[in-house]
Amino acid sequence: MNNYFVIGNPIDHSLSPLIHNYWFKKYKINGTYEKRKLETKDLKNFIVEIKNNKNFKGANVTVPFKNKIIPFLDELSSVAEETFSVNTIVKENKKLIGHNTDATAFEKTLKENESWLLLKSLIIGAGGVTSSIIWAIRNLNRNKIYITNRTKEKATNLVNRLSTGLIGDEIEVLDWGEIPDVNLIVNTTSLGLNQNDDLKLDFKKYKNKKDCMFYDLIYNPKETIFLKDAKKRGNYISNGKMMFLLQAKQAFKLWTNVDAEIDKEILKIVD
Ligand code: ATR
Question: Whole-angstrom Cα distance, residue 138 to residue 120?
Answer without folding.
Answer: 11
